[in-house]
Amino acid sequence: MSTQALHSAAHATTLRVLAHLLDYPDAALREHLPDLRAALHGQRTLSAARLAELDALIDQLLHATGFDAEAAYVDLFDRGRGTALHLFEHVHGDSRDRGPAMIDLIKTYEEAGLYLASGELPDHLTVVLEYASTQPPLAAADFLREIAHILRSIFSALTRRESAYACVLAALLDLAGEPTKLVEVAAEPLLDETWSEPAAFGGCSSEGQRSPGESQPVRIVRTLRQPQHGQPGQHGQSAHGAST
Q1: Where in the sequence is the domain holding 163, given as residue range(s)?
Q2: Has residue 7 been placed in a domain?
Q3: Contact 76, 83 (CB under 8 A)
Q4: What is the pLDDT of residue 234?
Q5: Model pTM?
Q6: Domain count along the chain
Q7: By the 8 A CB rule, do 76 and 93 touch?
Q8: Residues 6+ apart with CB under 8 A from 51
Q9: Which helix (H) or strand (E) holds 48?
Q10: Which of 24, 113, 114, 136 yields a CA-CA distance of 20 to 30 A from 120?
Protein backbone atom coordinates (compact mmCIF):
# COMPACT_ATOMS: atom_id res chain seq x y z
CA MET A 1 0.00 0.00 0.00
CA SER A 2 1.33 3.44 -0.93
CA THR A 3 2.22 6.09 1.66
CA GLN A 4 -0.73 8.19 0.53
CA ALA A 5 -3.12 5.25 0.91
CA LEU A 6 -1.74 4.50 4.37
CA HIS A 7 -2.24 8.13 5.39
CA SER A 8 -5.80 8.09 4.08
CA ALA A 9 -6.62 4.88 5.95
CA ALA A 10 -5.09 6.21 9.18
CA HIS A 11 -7.07 9.44 8.90
CA ALA A 12 -10.33 7.54 8.27
CA THR A 13 -9.72 5.18 11.20
CA THR A 14 -8.99 8.09 13.54
CA LEU A 15 -12.21 9.86 12.58
CA ARG A 16 -14.24 6.68 13.11
CA VAL A 17 -12.69 6.05 16.52
CA LEU A 18 -13.43 9.63 17.58
CA ALA A 19 -17.01 9.16 16.37
CA HIS A 20 -17.37 6.05 18.52
CA LEU A 21 -15.97 7.85 21.56
CA LEU A 22 -18.74 10.44 21.21
CA ASP A 23 -21.43 7.79 21.01
CA TYR A 24 -23.66 6.55 23.80
CA PRO A 25 -21.44 4.43 26.11
CA ASP A 26 -23.56 1.30 26.26
CA ALA A 27 -22.12 -2.12 27.12
CA ALA A 28 -21.12 -2.89 23.51
CA LEU A 29 -19.14 0.33 23.16
CA ARG A 30 -17.43 -0.04 26.54
CA GLU A 31 -16.41 -3.58 25.63
CA HIS A 32 -14.54 -2.26 22.57
CA LEU A 33 -12.80 0.65 24.31
CA PRO A 34 -9.41 -1.18 24.46
CA ASP A 35 -9.65 -1.82 20.71
CA LEU A 36 -10.48 1.83 20.08
CA ARG A 37 -7.46 2.88 22.15
CA ALA A 38 -5.18 0.55 20.20
CA ALA A 39 -6.55 1.83 16.89
CA LEU A 40 -5.88 5.45 17.85
CA HIS A 41 -2.31 4.75 18.92
CA GLY A 42 -1.67 2.64 15.84
CA GLN A 43 -2.47 5.44 13.40
CA ARG A 44 -0.09 8.14 14.73
CA THR A 45 -2.46 10.77 13.37
CA LEU A 46 -2.73 12.74 16.61
CA SER A 47 -0.06 14.19 18.87
CA ALA A 48 1.21 12.31 21.91
CA ALA A 49 -0.35 14.94 24.19
CA ARG A 50 -3.76 14.55 22.55
CA LEU A 51 -3.54 10.76 22.70
CA ALA A 52 -2.80 11.02 26.43
CA GLU A 53 -5.99 13.05 26.90
CA LEU A 54 -8.01 10.51 24.92
CA ASP A 55 -6.48 7.71 27.01
CA ALA A 56 -7.73 9.49 30.13
CA LEU A 57 -11.26 9.63 28.70
CA ILE A 58 -11.14 5.94 27.78
CA ASP A 59 -9.86 5.04 31.26
CA GLN A 60 -12.67 7.07 32.81
CA LEU A 61 -15.27 5.17 30.77
CA LEU A 62 -13.63 1.83 31.54
CA HIS A 63 -13.56 2.42 35.30
CA ALA A 64 -17.09 3.80 35.58
CA THR A 65 -20.03 1.49 36.07
CA GLY A 66 -22.30 1.11 33.06
CA PHE A 67 -25.08 3.05 34.74
CA ASP A 68 -22.78 5.91 35.76
CA ALA A 69 -21.21 6.22 32.31
CA GLU A 70 -24.59 6.25 30.58
CA ALA A 71 -26.19 8.66 33.04
CA ALA A 72 -23.24 11.06 32.78
CA TYR A 73 -23.48 10.97 28.97
CA VAL A 74 -27.18 11.82 28.99
CA ASP A 75 -26.64 14.59 31.53
CA LEU A 76 -23.82 16.05 29.45
CA PHE A 77 -25.08 15.82 25.88
CA ASP A 78 -28.87 15.58 26.12
CA ARG A 79 -29.61 18.23 28.74
CA GLY A 80 -27.84 21.31 27.48
CA ARG A 81 -27.84 23.09 24.15
CA GLY A 82 -24.24 24.25 24.49
CA THR A 83 -22.95 20.66 24.55
CA ALA A 84 -25.52 19.21 22.13
CA LEU A 85 -24.00 16.92 19.50
CA HIS A 86 -26.71 17.77 16.97
CA LEU A 87 -24.87 20.42 14.96
CA PHE A 88 -27.94 22.20 13.63
CA GLU A 89 -28.99 22.84 17.21
CA HIS A 90 -26.13 25.33 17.29
CA VAL A 91 -26.92 26.84 13.90
CA HIS A 92 -30.69 26.79 13.42
CA GLY A 93 -32.07 25.96 16.86
CA ASP A 94 -35.79 25.22 16.48
CA SER A 95 -36.25 27.40 13.41
CA ARG A 96 -37.85 26.20 10.18
CA ASP A 97 -34.46 26.33 8.46
CA ARG A 98 -33.45 23.17 10.28
CA GLY A 99 -35.66 20.87 8.15
CA PRO A 100 -34.28 21.91 4.73
CA ALA A 101 -30.75 21.80 6.13
CA MET A 102 -31.37 18.20 7.27
CA ILE A 103 -32.60 17.26 3.79
CA ASP A 104 -29.56 18.81 2.12
CA LEU A 105 -27.23 16.92 4.47
CA ILE A 106 -29.00 13.62 3.78
CA LYS A 107 -28.55 14.22 0.04
CA THR A 108 -24.84 14.84 0.61
CA TYR A 109 -24.56 11.50 2.40
CA GLU A 110 -26.50 9.63 -0.27
CA GLU A 111 -24.30 11.07 -3.01
CA ALA A 112 -21.38 9.50 -1.13
CA GLY A 113 -23.24 6.17 -0.96
CA LEU A 114 -24.17 6.48 2.72
CA TYR A 115 -27.71 5.89 3.95
CA LEU A 116 -29.01 6.57 7.45
CA ALA A 117 -30.72 3.99 9.61
CA SER A 118 -34.35 4.61 10.42
CA GLY A 119 -34.76 7.34 13.03
CA GLU A 120 -31.15 8.55 12.81
CA LEU A 121 -30.68 12.31 12.42
CA PRO A 122 -28.05 13.40 9.90
CA ASP A 123 -26.65 16.30 11.92
CA HIS A 124 -25.51 14.24 14.91
CA LEU A 125 -21.74 14.64 15.14
CA THR A 126 -21.09 10.90 15.17
CA VAL A 127 -22.88 10.57 11.81
CA VAL A 128 -21.13 13.64 10.41
CA LEU A 129 -17.76 12.13 11.32
CA GLU A 130 -18.65 8.83 9.71
CA TYR A 131 -19.29 10.74 6.47
CA ALA A 132 -16.02 12.67 6.85
CA SER A 133 -14.13 9.39 7.29
CA THR A 134 -15.18 8.33 3.78
CA GLN A 135 -13.52 11.38 2.23
CA PRO A 136 -9.85 11.82 1.28
CA PRO A 137 -7.85 13.43 4.12
CA LEU A 138 -7.66 16.88 2.50
CA ALA A 139 -11.38 16.88 1.71
CA ALA A 140 -12.19 15.64 5.22
CA ALA A 141 -10.05 18.40 6.74
CA ASP A 142 -11.82 21.00 4.58
CA PHE A 143 -15.17 19.62 5.71
CA LEU A 144 -14.15 19.79 9.38
CA ARG A 145 -12.98 23.37 8.89
CA GLU A 146 -16.45 24.27 7.63
CA ILE A 147 -17.92 23.22 10.97
CA ALA A 148 -14.91 24.28 13.08
CA HIS A 149 -16.85 27.16 14.68
CA ILE A 150 -19.41 24.65 15.97
CA LEU A 151 -16.73 22.21 17.12
CA ARG A 152 -14.97 25.02 18.97
CA SER A 153 -18.21 26.08 20.65
CA ILE A 154 -18.92 22.53 21.86
CA PHE A 155 -15.28 22.16 22.94
CA SER A 156 -15.56 25.34 24.98
CA ALA A 157 -18.84 24.27 26.58
CA LEU A 158 -17.38 20.88 27.51
CA THR A 159 -14.23 22.50 28.89
CA ARG A 160 -16.34 24.84 31.01
CA ARG A 161 -18.05 21.77 32.46
CA GLU A 162 -14.63 20.14 33.04
CA SER A 163 -15.63 17.15 30.93
CA ALA A 164 -13.03 14.69 29.66
CA TYR A 165 -15.02 14.53 26.42
CA ALA A 166 -13.59 17.94 25.48
CA CYS A 167 -10.44 16.21 24.22
CA VAL A 168 -12.42 14.51 21.43
CA LEU A 169 -13.52 17.89 20.08
CA ALA A 170 -9.95 19.15 20.47
CA ALA A 171 -8.72 16.20 18.40
CA LEU A 172 -11.21 17.04 15.66
CA LEU A 173 -9.99 20.64 15.61
CA ASP A 174 -6.42 19.30 15.34
CA LEU A 175 -7.40 17.23 12.30
CA ALA A 176 -9.01 20.32 10.77
CA GLY A 177 -5.83 22.32 11.34
CA GLU A 178 -7.75 24.70 13.60
CA PRO A 179 -6.69 26.10 16.98
CA THR A 180 -8.35 24.75 20.12
CA LYS A 181 -8.82 28.17 21.67
CA LEU A 182 -11.76 28.67 23.99
CA VAL A 183 -14.62 30.89 22.88
CA GLU A 184 -17.29 32.59 24.93
CA VAL A 185 -20.26 30.32 25.58
CA ALA A 186 -23.44 31.93 26.78
CA ALA A 187 -24.89 30.64 30.04
CA GLU A 188 -28.06 28.69 29.45
CA PRO A 189 -30.72 26.87 31.46
CA LEU A 190 -30.66 23.10 31.36
CA LEU A 191 -33.00 21.60 28.80
CA ASP A 192 -34.89 19.99 31.69
CA GLU A 193 -35.64 23.47 32.97
CA THR A 194 -36.40 24.90 29.54
CA TRP A 195 -38.92 22.15 28.78
CA SER A 196 -40.19 21.55 32.32
CA GLU A 197 -43.89 20.93 32.59
CA PRO A 198 -45.84 23.58 34.47
CA ALA A 199 -48.26 22.66 37.24
CA ALA A 200 -51.62 21.63 35.87
CA PHE A 201 -53.77 24.71 35.21
CA GLY A 202 -51.06 26.85 36.82
CA GLY A 203 -52.32 25.76 40.22
CA CYS A 204 -55.56 27.69 39.49
CA SER A 205 -53.56 30.89 39.89
CA SER A 206 -53.06 33.80 37.56
CA GLU A 207 -50.81 31.53 35.48
CA GLY A 208 -53.84 29.40 34.74
CA GLN A 209 -57.19 30.90 33.84
CA ARG A 210 -56.78 34.63 33.82
CA SER A 211 -60.41 35.58 33.25
CA PRO A 212 -63.48 33.33 33.52
CA GLY A 213 -65.26 33.08 30.19
CA GLU A 214 -62.17 34.09 28.25
CA SER A 215 -60.69 31.47 25.92
CA GLN A 216 -57.42 30.03 27.15
CA PRO A 217 -54.58 28.61 25.03
CA VAL A 218 -53.63 24.96 25.38
CA ARG A 219 -49.94 24.60 26.25
CA ILE A 220 -48.20 21.43 25.10
CA VAL A 221 -44.67 20.94 26.38
CA ARG A 222 -42.03 18.37 25.56
CA THR A 223 -40.44 16.21 28.24
CA LEU A 224 -37.01 14.63 27.80
CA ARG A 225 -37.11 10.87 27.47
CA GLN A 226 -34.64 9.11 29.71
CA PRO A 227 -32.90 6.11 28.10
CA GLN A 228 -33.24 2.99 30.16
CA HIS A 229 -30.23 1.36 31.69
CA GLY A 230 -28.28 -0.53 29.08
CA GLN A 231 -30.24 0.90 26.16
CA PRO A 232 -28.80 3.41 23.67
CA GLY A 233 -30.35 6.82 23.20
CA GLN A 234 -31.39 8.23 19.86
CA HIS A 235 -27.80 8.35 18.65
CA GLY A 236 -27.85 4.60 17.91
CA GLN A 237 -24.84 2.67 16.75
CA SER A 238 -26.44 1.39 13.55
CA ALA A 239 -26.19 4.52 11.46
CA HIS A 240 -22.44 4.85 11.78
CA GLY A 241 -21.33 1.45 12.97
CA ALA A 242 -18.38 1.12 10.58
CA SER A 243 -15.66 -0.95 12.11
CA THR A 244 -12.29 0.54 12.93
Answers
A1: 3-188+224-237
A2: yes
A3: yes
A4: 44
A5: 0.75
A6: 1
A7: no
A8: 40, 41
A9: helix 48-63
A10: 136
- Domain-embedded: residue 205: no
Q: CA 36 to CA 59: how far, in whole Å?
A: 12
Q: Mention every residue, 6+ apart, whose C-beta is less than 8 A from residue 66.
A: 25, 26, 27, 30, 229, 230
Task: DSSP letter for 181, please.
Answer: -
**What's the rounded mean pLDDT across residues 200-208?**
41
Residue 203 has pLDDT above 90, yes or no: no
| Phi and psi at residue 104, to the nearest 5° | -60, -40
Mind giving me the DSSP string for 92-153?
TTTSTTHHHHHHHHHHHHHHTT--PPTT--TTBHHHHHHHHTTS-HHHHHHHHHHTHHHHHH
User: Where is pLDDT greater, at 79 or 46?
Assistant: 46
pLDDT tier, 60 (very low <50, low <70, confident <90, very high otherwise): very high
For residue 238, the 8-state DSSP code is: G
Give residue 230's pLDDT band: very low, low, confident or very high (50, 70, 90): very low
| CATH classification of the domain holding 146 | 1.10.3480
Cα–Cα distance measured from residue 239 to residue 222, given in angstroms and rounded to the nearest whole number: 25
CA 194 distance to own-chain centroid: 20
> Does the residue 244 lie in any domain?
no
